[in-house]
Amino acid sequence: MITRRSVLGGALAAAGLPLLAPGAFAGGEAHAARGGPRPASASTPPAFTTAMPVPPVLRPLSSTGDVDCYELTIRKSTAEILPGVASDVLTYDGHFPGPVIHARSGRRVLVRHHNGLHMPVTVHLHGGSVPPSSDGNPMDVFAPGTARTYVYTNRQPHASLWFHDHAHHMEAEHVYRGLSGGYLLTDDLEQSLPLPKGRYDVPVTIRDARFDERGQLAYTMSDRNRTTILANGKPTPYFQVAARKYRFRLLNGSNLRLFSLSLSDGTPLIQIGSDGGLLERPVAVPVLTLSPGERADVVVDFSRHPVGTRLVLANTGPGRPEQVGRVLRFDVVRTADDPSRVPAVLRTLPPAAALPRAAVTRHIELSMDEDGRPDPRGFVNGRLFDPDRVDTTVAFGSSEIWNVTNTNKRAPHNFHVHLVQFRVLERGGRPAGPTEAGLKDTVRVMPGETVKLHMTFDGFRGDYVYHCHMLDHSAMGMMATFRVR
């Protein structure tokens, strides 16, 4: 029987490495290198006392013809997440939060990653339509001391994508400790719109964390006590804004937590985009729900607020409000000219009735053990992930309907499929709401719920995976392989 340790053991053995248990990174190696544990006085600071940083934008190592080339080293580093404490993190080139790559449709990007860790890794461009060799398959790892070049053809339209580690059984802990970054793909259509740009277009990754008494990130599978909310790597920070419109590219970078976001004055968030780019029309959203891996681009107009206003981005998702109810505070500190606006029509997408006819309808069930066992397992259609098994075969160029059901009674899940952007047709038997009407690659599926998805496999041939993007669940085996041929 395939188990968590047997699959991981095979990947590590192939790389000539010892088997590490989940949580091994937090052990003695990193701490001993700097003289042992830190004082027990490390604690989360009061809300809104730390400034939220903006992730750094990477510059290409070279740009020739229609190719931009980058080079990054995946390595351990430290970050001051809690004030005055150096917390051990995993990074791309030492950046925590992760860096951002700007790309353009039709222009290739090559990223050469050097593995400076003592564990195998792989890199997945989440939401990207890429060939199998550059998809970051969970078993397609590269060993410590080696490098891998990923080729992104960027044949798809604009989208707020992201990249992260996907080494099976280690993906959850690696991403939790910092191995993620942004990949903002744009095109002529998006650039032609008068949306906020430049310094007024801000990526924001929100996630949860738990720290030990030394101020180190504590990782335990299925941990429900990750109650420190981070925005761009800082605990419940503030962000200074001008009295004008901003575009915020929100990513739920958590392993498990769902966020339900709203502004403290009751003003709706204006959602303009989701995973796969702009919606057809902007939507006023009183409460925006994001499951792990989902993205939403929103516009907030601070011009209606006088200088000195403080506006909180609140969370009413699962958890105690006093612990997880505040995410970020916007402080209006100055006035500014604002030539931007949000058009009434952002792009054109075919209506559900005009989508290509589905050749096949499939039924996918997501489930996990809920009986309290110490090492719960995750399943797709009742089976643990087996990297040697192809679970689904689809014809290149065909369209299919996938009905994805969460059969658990208590545990929420979500669903992410590599290679394609899909359309959400129905949720619980009803037409999808306007916030899910665009292109998606990740969708939440609550206990007992079914979502109906339409997807077309016209990108590349080869093997890819689909899985729950609550990464602790995929690390438990809630993943399967599909082959496009």
UniProtKB/TrEMBL annotation:
Residues 1-26 form the signal peptide. InterPro entries: Cu-oxidase-like_N (IPR011707), Cu-oxidase_2nd (IPR001117), Cu-oxidase_C (IPR011706), Cu-oxidase_fam (IPR045087), Cu_oxidase_Cu_BS (IPR002355), Cupredoxin (IPR008972), TAT_signal (IPR006311). Residues 29-48 are annotated as: Disordered. Pfam families: Cu-oxidase (PF00394), Cu-oxidase_2 (PF07731), Cu-oxidase_3 (PF07732). It catalyses: 4 Cu(+) + O2 + 4 H(+) = 4 Cu(2+) + 2 H2O. Gene3D superfamilies: Cupredoxins - blue copper proteins (2.60.40.420). Its EC number is 1.16.3.4. Residues 37-48 have a biased composition (Low complexity). Keywords: Metal-binding, Oxidoreductase, Signal. The keyword Signal applies. Residues 74-187, 232-315, 375-485 form the Plastocyanin-like domain. CDD domains: CuRO_3_CueO_FtsP (cd13890). Monomer. This is Multicopper oxidase CueO.
